[in-house]
Amino acid sequence: MKVLVAEDSIVMRTVLVSHLQEWDYEVFEARDGKEAWELFQSEDFSLILTDWIMPEIDGLELIRRIRTSTRPGYCYLILLTAKSDKEDLITAMEVGADDFLVKPCDREELRVRLREGERIIRLQQELAQQNQQLRETQAALVESEKLASLGQLAAGMAHEINNPIAFVTNNLAVLRRELGPIIELVRKYEQTRDFLDDAPAELLEDLHRIEAECDLDWVGEHLPQLLQSSTQGLTRVRDIIKNLRDFARLDQAGCDDLDLGQAVMSTLQILKTQIDEKRIRVELDAGSVPTVLCRPDKILQVIYNVILNAVQASELGAEVMVRLMSNDESVIIEVEDNGCGMEKETLSRVFEPFFTTKPVGTGTGLGMAVSYGVVGDHGGAITIDSQPNQGTTVRVVLPIKPSDDSMTASLSKST
Amino acid sequence: MPATTKHAILIVDDEPDVLFSLAALLRRDFQVYTAASGSEALEVMAEHPVHVIMTDQRMPAMTGVELMQRVCAEYPQAVRIVFTGYADTRAVVDAINSGDLYRYITKPWDPDDLVDLLRDAASQHDAMAAKVELLNELGSYFEDALRVTNDAAARDSEFLQEFQARTLKLRRQLELIGEAQ
């Protein structure tokens, strides 16, 4: 424990320091208030013993400065004083001293006062730690609540959207089929028109006018593309809905043992085009890890999302590291890239559905949200370290056997 | 069923847009009937022969699986298909496992796949109908066969011609069963 002794009398200071060193404190000395203040600003002291009357900055002023400083952590302050008037003591305590000792100090009294100080410091530290934990738990709780309600919203929405997507997709298929022959029919009419000399002039006039308006050549040429692009758009909507359903975890498959090494290999195979396009070198350190009891399709989806993100974040020709490790309870998949990384702000929103930094149309903003849900369901955890412009490391920790809780949860959902 | 006649399909969904859309898709290949509820569907079944019935799972009053149980009991030869949003999958899987359904289709379906699947369903119907007929006929056919073998008088008669016609018909039914498998 670091202790600072501020005392202008060399005799008094030497005595105090020798006692303190005897009791195994790490002692720093200051010859006056000014030196003590400078030391305070560069070191973290748990406890400070200070004389009251010193040149330039006296003990009271030192205490006042310490109490208003923004340095983190609590510092226990004992004021040494020859004054023993009640009023003086009240002044000292009001300014922020925790305790005082009357000079000349008795060795045993000093010892027990220090012990008391240590006890307070310990309590103070425990409290700060608990507060910190509380804040973190609360933040996590808010986050998971938010994700859960978004999941419910997603599920409801997915169901409602499915029907219109179904019949609109179907209608487009019908239109595609029916419009082809109609265009052909009109073309035939066109060819036939030259033989229509006997038709009433009025009808022929109408025919000319309508022809000019409808620009049949353009329609014939572009109709297939109009229909095809509409169908593709709907396919994209359908995929988004599918992802939303996965995020809300409505469709459950069975559990099975999964070899993660193999899973990573086959994912790399699926992503080969993207990897080759950016000439990414993938360094795979697979080692031998035990199989994991999980829902393989879901975990494959997580691995896919994480590796795809790493590839997309990387520069041309960069390297992506995929590592597999294990301990007694879990298997860890680590994917590291040296790509663009993320700001703190972005990092804190990574698991939110529809949050994406990718250009419109390239990402649905659901990959990490779905992964978060899947890994959580398996009783695992997914964590991300990222520095802007340096890269990102994603760690997925999966228990080798899901706990009974997460198993029952998934089973009850699927029935 | 003669190849020139279209198979009859009944589509059941409480959403009119879905009925309209599917009828438009299927009208070329099938004789299409539509119904907006389970009870309406049973009325249609009572009035027309239906070879394939395809129903939505989620409907007010009677669910798709419930309707299929009624159809299975009353019109066992109609091939039964349910289409469903993913969330209902469990109920439908149970229904398939208990033998009530031929297939299930998830919404949104792929139009081309759907037409193919319904064609398969129609030939499945023909095969089942052929099987039933085959079994019904086989008993008396064997009797006739014995007569042809043992009774010389039967051989150059009208009876022989009729016997040959029956043989061809039974062979055709066997082929239908084979095609669907």
UniProtKB/TrEMBL annotation, chain A:
Residues 156-402 form the Histidine kinase domain. Keywords: Coiled coil, Phosphoprotein, Transferase. Pfam families: HATPase_c, HisKA, Response_reg. The modification 4-aspartylphosphate is found at D51. GO terms for molecular function: phosphorelay sensor kinase activity. It catalyses: ATP + protein L-histidine = ADP + protein N-phospho-L-histidine. Its EC number is 2.7.13.3. InterPro entries: CheY-like_superfamily, HATPase_C_sf, HATPase_dom, His_kinase_dom, HisK_dim/P_dom, HisK_dim/P_sf, Sig_transdc_His_kin-like_C, Sig_transdc_resp-reg_receiver. It is an enzyme of class 2 (transferase). PROSITE patterns: HIS_KIN, RESPONSE_REGULATORY. Residues 2-118 form the Response regulatory domain. This is histidine kinase. It comes from the Bacteria. Residues 120-147 form a coiled coil. SUPFAM superfamilies: ATPase domain of HSP90 chaperone/DNA topoisomerase II/histidine kinase, CheY-like, Homodimeric domain of signal transducing histidine kinase. Signal peptide: none annotated.
Automatic annotation (TrEMBL), chain B:
The modification 4-aspartylphosphate is found at D56. The keyword Oxidoreductase does not apply. Keywords: Phosphoprotein. Coiled coil: none annotated. It comes from the Bacteria. Gene3D superfamilies: 3.40.50.2300. It holds the Pfam family Response_reg. One of its GO terms (biological process) is phosphorelay signal transduction system. This is Hydrogenase transcriptional regulatory protein hupR1. It comes from Novipirellula herctigrandis.
